[in-house]
């Protein structure tokens, strides 16, 4: 660089004058400013304001993924908490109904059951007189004490006493026994050896509660042509054993096993004898725990949401200073 040109630049920095005449300085990122007074000098980004504040608004905070998740979490947890409260009320009412009905003495099942009044007699002990007849229904898989098997459901004919035929769940049998009955290799308990109607008997049973939602999404459909029943579809079972034309009503009762024989249930199952249900019913009631859990999660996520929003509002962003003298 020549000496005269170097002297011109030095004079511009010292005096603030224009080394190349009075022409305005170009507007660029790096600008040698001349003729602007004593405060002029070497600046970066002359087109920017002398001071800038970069801040995150409350709106941008609300649309962050964590904020959106925390906004929906209290709503979902609160909804599940309210739902569990409703389930708790339902379970308490059901337990009270069961305990009330189990304390009552057994009653004779009417010859022709009033189907509209049947739900009011759920879990009532009843007495039936008649005889078993085919065909048997194998409903399962079922488990009892960790052992796989079926529920053996057989039509119970009460026509000799002027009554209708109903379905009777004799109880639990092992898988091998059920398969042998389905294939005709073993006789059906309660029926004659040739498969005809059995002898007249009196049984004590319990009326079951009709569950219209007994089939869940994961349970396969029943296959009546193979006598495979994965869930208790009572109307379809009734049609399979003869239906209304054969005097069969859509009523299902479970035989009660009082254990009076003194023979353990495992030994009776091994001999192919169906084991009925116990005379008592124990229902788990964990809904209060679920209520506390969901409402606690609702409160915690609500507090977390408030803290996130508050931190977004109070966050301080430092000013960006100009690069140079200002």
From TrEMBL:
InterPro entries: Surf1/Shy1, Surf1/Surf4. One of its GO terms (biological process) is mitochondrial respiratory chain complex IV assembly. Its main location: membrane. The keyword Mitochondrion applies. The keyword Repeat does not apply. It is found in: Membrane; Mitochondrion inner membrane. Signal peptide: none annotated. Keywords: Membrane, Mitochondrion, Mitochondrion inner membrane, Transmembrane, Transmembrane helix. GO terms for cellular component: mitochondrial inner membrane. It holds the Pfam family SURF1. The chain crosses the membrane at residues 62-83, 288-309. It is a multi-pass membrane protein. Probably involved in the biogenesis of the COX complex. Belongs to the SURF1 family. This is SURF1-like protein. It comes from Cutaneotrichosporon cavernicola. The gene is SHY1.
